[in-house]
Write a structure and sequence with these properties.
The protein is of the alpha+beta class. It has six helices and nine strands. The protein has a five-stranded mixed barrel. Strand 1 and strand 2 form a beta hairpin.
C-alpha cells in the first residue's frame, strides 16, 4: 500500500516548469506564467500582475489550443468523468467525500489505473475549492497565515477570516488571489487556531493520498 501511494503521488505531481506564454482560443494571452497544477479538465496557472499581485487562474482545456491539450493528455471522455465525479462530491462534507473518493479509487487499484484513481481524488478536491482574495499577515512553517475573503464577497457571504495556506510565501501585506483547497485540518499557534488550506491542486492531491494511506 505504501509503495502504491508513493507511485500515485509521483504520478500526480507535475514539475514547476519555466515561465511560458499561453494564448487561449479566444485570443487572450497570459505572459510568463507558471503551470502549478493540472487536472483532466484544465490547468492552473500562476502569474504576477503589474502591481505585484500574484494571480492563480484556471484555464479549461476546451479553451486552449490542441497542442496544449495533447501535452497534458486531455480527452473528452476523461474530462466528462471528472466533472461527473466533482458534481457528486460537491455537496458532501469533507471527510465523507474523501472516504467515498478513496473507496472509488480502491476499486481501480491496479497500477495501470493510477490516472483514474487520481481523477477521483482530484474531482473531490476540485469540488471543494474556493476562489479567494488573500492578504498575508505572517509566514508560518511552509506557508503563510493571512486573511481571506471570497472574490464575490457580500455582507453575509464570503468572509473566511484568518486561515493558513500551505505553499504560499510572502511578507506582511502581500496580496494574492486564486484557488485554495481545504484539508479538513486546523493548526494552533500561540495566537490562535487556523483552518488549513493548500494552494495548489497537486499539493492537495498528494496530501489527501497520504492521509488515505495513513488510514485517516
Amino acid at each position: 500500500m505504501k509503495l502504491f501511494v508513493i507511485c500515485l503521488i509521483s504520478f500526480c505531481m507535475i514539475s514547476m516548469v519555466s515561465a511560458r506564454d499561453i494564448t487561449t482560443l479566444d485570443g487572450a494571452t497570459y505572459k510568463d506564467v507558471i503551470i502549478t497544477s493540472t487536472s483532466p479538465i484544465g490547468i492552473t496557472i500562476s502569474y504576477d500582475k503589474p502591481d505585484g499581485t500574484t494571480v492563480i487562474k484556471g484555464l479549461d482545456f476546451r479553451d486552449l489550443p490542441e497542442a496544449i491539450r495533447k501535452e497534458f493528455g486531455y480527452t473528452e471522455v476523461r474530462a466528462a468523468e471528472f466533472e461527473k465525479h466533482a458534481l457528486e462530491y460537491r455537496n458532501m462534507v469533507y471527510k465523507d467525500a474523501l472516504k467515498k473518493a478513496a473507496a472509488n479509487a480502491a476499486v481501480e487499484k491496479r497500477d495501470e489505473e493510477l490516472a483514474k484513481q487520481i481523477d477521483h481524488i482530484q474531482a473531490f478536491l476540485f469540488s471543494k475549492r474556493k476562489y479567494v482574495r488573500f492578504v498575508t499577515i505572517r509566514p508560518h512553517d511552509g506557508g503563510v497565515i493571512g486573511y481571506a475573503t471570497a472574490a464575490d464577497r457580500t455582507a453575509i457571504y464570503g468572509d473566511y477570516g484568518h486561515i493558513f495556506v500551505r505553499g504560499l510565501s510572502g511578507s506582511q501585506g502581500t496580496c494574492w488571489s486564486g484557488y485554495i483547497y481545504p484539508t479538513g485540518q486546523s493548526i494552533t499557534t500561540t495566537d490562535g487556531s487556523y483552518d488549513v488550506y493548500n494552494s495548489t491542486l497537486t499539493q492537495a492531491t498528494a496530501e489527501a493520498m497520504q492521509a488515505i494511506a495513513a488510514g485517516q
